[in-house]
Each structure stands twice: as structure tokens, then as C-alpha cells.
Amino acid sequence: MGITIKDVAKLAKVSTMTVSRVVNNTGTIAVETRKRVLDAIDTLHYKPNTIARTLVAQKSRIISLIVPDIANPFFSELIKHAEAEAKRFGYNLFIGDAGWDITNEREFIDSSIGRMSDGVILVTPRLPDEELQALSAAIPLVVVDRSMAQTKVMDVYVDNYDGAFEATEFLIEAGHERIGYIRGWEDVLNTKRREQGYADALKKHGIPYRPELIQVGDYREQSGYNAFRYFIELSERPTAVFASNDMMAYGFISACIQNGVRIPYDISVMGFDDITLFFEHVPRLSTVSHPRIPMIRKAVDMLLGLPADEISKFDAELHTELVIRDSVSRLD
Amino acid sequence: MGITIKDVAKLAKVSTMTVSRVVNNTGTIAVETRKRVLDAIDTLHYKPNTIARTLVAQKSRIISLIVPDIANPFFSELIKHAEAEAKRFGYNLFIGDAGWDITNEREFIDSSIGRMSDGVILVTPRLPDEELQALSAAIPLVVVDRSMAQTKVMDVYVDNYDGAFEATEFLIEAGHERIGYIRGWEDVLNTKRREQGYADALKKHGIPYRPELIQVGDYREQSGYNAFRYFIELSERPTAVFASNDMMAYGFISACIQNGVRIPYDISVMGFDDITLFFEHVPRLSTVSHPRIPMIRKAVDMLLGLPADEISKFDAELHTELVIRDSVSRLD
DNA sequence: CTGTTAGCGCGTTCAC
DNA sequence: GTGAACGCGCTAACAG
Description:
2 copies of one chain form a homodimer.
Chain A: H1 5-12, H2 16-24, H3 31-44, H4 50-57, E1 62-67, H5 73-88, E2 92-97, H6 102-114, E3 119-123, H7 129-135, E4 141-144, E5 154-156, H8 161-173, E6 179-183, H9 189-204, E7 214-216, H10 221-232, E8 240-243, H11 246-258, E9 268-270, E10 287-289, H12 292-303, H13 308-312, E11 321-323
Parallel strand pairs in A: 1-2, 1-3, 3-4, 4-5, 6-7, 6-8, 8-9
Antiparallel strand pairs in A: 10-11
Chain A binds a DNA duplex (16 and 16 nucleotides) through helix 2 and helix 4.
């Protein structure tokens, strides 16, 4: 059993209320009394019980952050920045790894409610709109990187359409026509938007959309790796492959290297996200950069109720941007 | 304000105690009453308040896990497995990223105490023995990947000496004599053990220990990258470099690739940890594999009070192992 | 089978 | 400046 406020009160020969006041710096206390209390706190190594405080205050100073996959650098980086932003306001993070699984998402939200989280940030959840809408009645919810426009749920959304369009157009302008595409989870909105961007860019340049050039992936490395086998066995191989996220692009590249297919000489690769690796990968991946840092900051700020005009400052930054490096060659 | 047990009791026309019994499946309840309560719970969407439960039970079913760097794959993988193991027992994880910083470690432990965590797992903390010892009086503590033999603190320790010795010896037997070494944080025990292994292997084979071949790093990629610059400008360059963790090895490799230094033809590289990348890196790194999965599992099990004989089953697995891949060449 | 009482550790309210 | 009483949401112990 831990030291409680009562123990301190007893030792300092005051009421618990006085101790509480000292700890929280509220009310007025005689200098001498304060010193006695402080001494008692010190000798007893008293630490206030946050659980009890939470129960009284109906506020935990915790926000939950649910990501689809903690081992994915895109998300672990997000966590770092979310933690930093939350800390600025004296908040702790309760982190959950949903593993791209709906049931886990649900359980984690329930758990957050039970633990009196002050809010939940969901990064690209797979839970349907209606359920998120319903849940948001029970606890403040911010959905990140997915539009909740049809609902009243708060969101921080970066439309990925333009990024995918520009990336595809870039490949086309480099002379590519047979452009393979690796898709992500179908039930994620941005997956659809990215694919639309890809398709529309083809259409704009009069290039037919060929279903056989589309591979279904799951945003994980392995599916990029697998896509390689498929594309390489096509009678007419693509000259370029656009992976709808960097993880799959890297998986694809690994397969290429292992099979002696050189990038960008034998095939070009374009990614999406611009994740920060912990070391430089060669060839350096051309990709679409995603404004994830301002995005997650904004999500935290929304939850902590920063004034709207302060939050909207970030808006200017929220767009994707083409990043040209070494993984795409010109077909001239 | 959320729905409480009182609301349910009122609606079901029973006492809160009865609701509590239904929720927890304790005591005996008339079938009919149970149904009324269940209905009320359903229509009200009642969720028990874990905070209040925690206060009563003096038990939160949460364990804290503090890692030095959440974005390092070694640790994010650890988190995944810790979470899985904890879940088996119905526990949630409270994850903290200390950023290799002592103050953060301290704050996070304090916060864990305040939040009534049932225990704390510290992965390679930098806090001194005495302080950890003291802290362990306030909350169950398990230190992972660091020996606490001098204290009464629980630990799950894998001595890294042998692994470093074998790795160095492997390089020597491949014909290398000028072997560079990149060290990690000096105040971490395993750092010392790894360096001892390196030094002893040299000694065994009559190769002088040269201080100019030692570079100080911090376990992060960047310091491996920086070490490259140092080694490459040496009048007598090393023919092989042993990085004391994979992150620094990868940093070093990146620098090599960017500077046209080929691995393993121009220089050999050996790592430590055998982290699982989310894609295949080329060249594939030769390294020392670290039994981190059984290690973290064991830590969780110790905290959750699994019987000693169950836990010790894991012991057999707890040793490092040489993993030979493509980053080391023979000098023949 | 069900309800009442008391208390987990703390802070708010209102006295003194 | 300080303290006593009450309640946050829940459950253990004891009635009935």
C-alpha cells in the first residue's frame, strides 16, 4: 500500500485538506505550516494518487492514441510527435496498436472510455463512419488522415488525391505508360483517393486503365514484396510501379534487389508517405511527402481544445508534395 | 458525464450492488433480475469505470513499459510482443518513450506510480542502480537487458559478452586484424560487456587493442554514420567494423554506400541485435542475434507473478547467437 | 437472492 | 489560515 495524503497529514499534524492545498498550490497557507507539510511529504516520499484525482476531477490528463501498426515507422514517428505535443500541455499518452484490426480498435476505445481518457485520437481507423459517430458521443474523438465529412466527428484530413495524381503524372511525363499500381486496404478512404488520382492521371494523358496492372496490397512490406512476383511474370511488364505507400514500395524494392532487377534502370518505383527511415536506403525513393507532423499536432490541439484560430494556423501546411529522388528513370 | 452504475440501478429498479454483481458475474442473481439489469446496461450503453475500480481494488491491470526509443525497430518490436503477452493476462500497457534520457525515465516511473500501474518494465534504463533499487520499494520493477545482480531488483538479463566475443573472433578468423569498433552509451552495462568481448577476442588472438579504432556512438543510426567519416580518414583504415548495435551498423553502411565504399568488398561490417527490418536491406547484415522476444515475455511474466517454474522454462533460450549473412568477407 | 454501510484517495464546499 | 463533511464510481463485508 502506498503513502496517502492522510499519512502526510498525520505526520505534519494538519488536516488532509491542508496537505492538498500545499500540493496543489491553492488557497493560502502559513509559511510555517507549508514547510512542515513539505517536510512530511519529503520524508514519506509521498506521491499524489492520480487515479483518485481523476475520479474527483473527472479528468485524467491522458489522451489515447490508436495507430494501426506501431512498428511501422510512419506511425512510430507520429507517436513521438504526438507525445511531445501532449507533453506541452501536461498530458500523457495511452498508446494502442490496433494491428489494422477493427475489433482491437473497438476494444481500445472502450478501454479508453473506462479509463477516463480525456479524448481519443484514431489514426486511419477501419471502423465504419456510423460506429465512430456513435462512439464520439461517449468520448471526444479525433480521426486522423481520414475524412469524417459525412459525420459530426472531428477529423484532420489530408486529401491524398492530388499527391497520387501528381506522382502518376510525373511517371507519365518521364515516358512511362505501363504503370503498375499497388493498392492498400480497400476500406480506407485514402486508399480510394489515391487510386482515383492514379486513374485520373492516366485518363488525362489518354493512357488506358488496365486492371491487370493493379495489385491488391495491405500497406505492409510483404504485400509490396509479393506484388513483385506478380508484375515480373506479366507478359507485358510495367516499366514503373507506383506503390500506394512507402512500406510496400520498400518491399517491392527488396524483391527487385534480391532478384537482380535494378532500380531505376530496369524498373522505376514511386512511393507514398515519405517515411523517415532510420538509415538511408539506396536507391533513394521518389515519393509523395505527407504532412504527418502538423497533422498529428493539429489532432492533439483539437482534442485539448486549443482556440480554433490557433489550430487553423497549421492548415496552410496540410498538403502533400512530390519528392523526386533516385528511383524513377526517364524513358527517352 | 458518463453513465454510471447508479443510472443502471435506477432504470433496472435494483441496487447498485446488484448491478455490480451482474457486471462482474459474482454472487447469485435471479434470472429475471439479471435480465432486467442487462437490458438496462444495454439501453444505457453503460461501461464500467475502470478508474473507480482501480481505486477500490488497488490494482489497475496496467503495466508500464518504458523503452529508450520507440522509433527504433528493436524496441517497437519489443512493444508488440509485450502487449501480446500482457493481453493474455487481461493487462493493458502504458508505454513510455524515454528518449535515452534519465529525467524522462524518472518522470515516467513517477507517473506510473501515481496511476497505480501494477508494475513497471524498464528496458535498458540509464538510471543508476541505487535509484532503481529505491524505486522498486514503491512499485514492482523489472529491468530488462541489464543486470541488477548487485541489487534486489528483478531483472531479465542476457549477458552480451559472449556474443561480442564470438562476433569479433569470427572477423579475426576471416582474416581481419584491423577491426574498428563503434561503442554505445557508456553508462549501459551491456555496452561495457560488449566492448570487453571485443577486446578479449583480440587479446586471445594476439592482436593489439588500438584505441584509435574505437569510436564512441550513442546507439543511434547517426553515430554509425559519423563513425564512417572517422574511420575512412584514418591513415590505416580498418578492414572490418564491428558496430555494437544494428542501428549504428546500418548508419555506417549507409555512409559507405553513399560514398561508393562497397560492402563487403571494400570493408566488412558486423552488427549486434539482429533487428527485424520491415524490408530486406542489401547487403544483408551479419550480426549477433539477441533473444529479445523471450526476454520481454519473461519480464511480463515475472511482473504478473507467474510461478517461478513456468518462467524458468524460457531460460534455456536466453543466449545470443551469431548470424552470418553477407556483410563480412574473408581476407584471403 | 438482494440491499445497506463503509471506504478506496482526493478535492470541493462551506464552516470556523 | 485551517478543518469537517461530502461525493467521485465502484465493490467488500455484512445484513436480511
